[in-house]
Amino acid sequence: MQQTFNILGKKYRIQSRLSSEEIEKINKEIVYHLRNLAMEYPALDKMDALVLCIIELKEKIIDMEKRGKKEMEKMEKIKKKIIFLEKKVLEELKILTKCSLML
Questions:
Q1: Rama region for 9: left / alpha / beta (φ>0; ψ in -120 to 50; rest)
Q2: d(C-alpha 101, C-alpha 89), whole Å
């Protein structure tokens, strides 16, 4: 779906799978972020502000990727532990079954 962004007085048309509401949210976040940068660094021109915005957003993406990787590692450990416990339970069941058959 074709969407329109209005950033710093310029319109941008993009193709996106996101909904109009999601695009509007992104647009507002970018404008908000750029305004904060402009207040924090009044001497920045628009291009420098956009570059800083991109760098900060990329930092967030990398942080999220790291957290995702850690979560996947945790899930893998949990999965291995479950498989280990499942094997132990099955072994105990076999032992108990043999014992009950002997009685």
A1: left
A2: 18
Q: Count the neighbouring beta carbons within 10 Å of the beta carbon of residue 49.
A: 19
What residue numbers bound the domain in which 37 lies?
2-102
Token couple for 88: 């132990």
pTM to 2 decimals?
Answer: 0.60
Strand partners, 3: 14
Alpha helices by DSSP H, 8-45: 20-40
What 8-state DSSP symbol labels residue 9? T
The number of domains in the chain is 1
- pLDDT tens for each residue of 70-81: 999 999 999 999
Cα–Cα distance, 44 to 56 (Å, whole number)? 15
pLDDT tens digits, 58-67: 999 999 999 9
